[in-house]
Design brief:
Chain lengths: ~160, ~110
């Protein structure tokens, strides 16, 4: 005998419940930064200047289990003298709700152009770090990070 | 009252590059999350951090919601003279916290 409620089989009912579950997961996803909004955020910082590849080194784990706390170190090749130093280090991401991560302003008194912090990653994505030099040039590097448990999406 | 942890060498040689490590307890609520009834949780983050060495600014950072809870920031400076290294954090909802340490430079 078929296990039915008003002509609906148990299998169909379970399928419908599972489908509703997937639909609600999609609905709670917040708006994301996209590679386009990251480019806009970078333009905001660098203006019309060209951004060259190099000089910047990103140290971030390539595979992250928990996107809520990811250690990040940025180092820039620079003698850090009053004439030639790093003025600022900016970090951007592609797929978090906002493209900015941190902007650190340093100077010749830093001695060494290196900063570390911990940040959040909402998804597997590319991180971009940009160094602003005292001569007005910009240098960048990027790193890909694979995230298995994303930050930002869970409810309390 | 937020709790801040600062790690700076107590003594350094003049001209030596020293590392400064800072950690402050703060939830860094992104403003992009919802509670269990679907209401958005308002943003509550630290937005800027400043470090001064004998009154002169040596480091400043703008923080965004992508910075993890309990912001940890490290950076470097040249030990120039004995004195005070002061730290200041400011954020949403009038968050303000200061901390300072002494350094001996020979």
């Amino acid at each position: 005998m078929r296990d039915s409620i008003k002509g609906t089989t148990r299998r169909e009912l379970l399928g419908a419940i599972a489908g509703a579950g997937i639909a609600s997961v999609i609905r709670i996803e917040p708006s994301r930064a996209t590679p386009t909004s990251m480019k806009a955020a970078i333009r905001n910082v660098v203006g019309e200047a060209a951004v060259k590849k190099g000089k910047v080194h990103i140290d971030v784990p390539p595979l992250v289990e928990n996107g809520n706390t990811v250690s990040l170190t940025i180092e820039v090749d620079s003698p850090m003298t009053p004439k030639d130093h790093v003025k600022a280090i900016h970090v951007f991401n592609e797929l978090n709700p906002q493209p900015n991560v941190i902007s650190a302003h340093i100077g010749p008194h830093a001695g060494r152009a290196k900063i570390s912090t911990r940040f959040r990653l909402a998804d597997t994505q590319t991180i971009v770090a940009i160094a602003e030099m005292s001569d007005g040039s910009f240098w960048s590097a990027s790193a890909d990070v694979v995230v298995t448990l994303a930050a930002c999406l869970e409810t309390l | 009252m937020a709790r801040a942890l600062i790690n700076v060498p107590k003594a350094a040689k003049r001209g030596q590059v020293i590392e400064i490590k800072t950690l402050i307890s703060h939830i860094m609520e992104t403003g992009f999350r919802h509670d269990d009834v679907g209401q958005p949780i308002p943003r509550d983050i630290i937005t800027d951090f400043v470090c001064t060495y004998n009154g002169e600014q040596i480091f400043r950072a703008d923080l965004y919601p992508a910075v993890a809870a309990n912001p940890f920031i490290t950076f470097f400076t040249v030990a120039t003279e004995s004195g005070t290294i002061a730290f200041e954090w400011n954020g949403d909802n009038g968050f303000h916290e200061t901390e300072s340490v002494q350094i001996m430079v020979e």
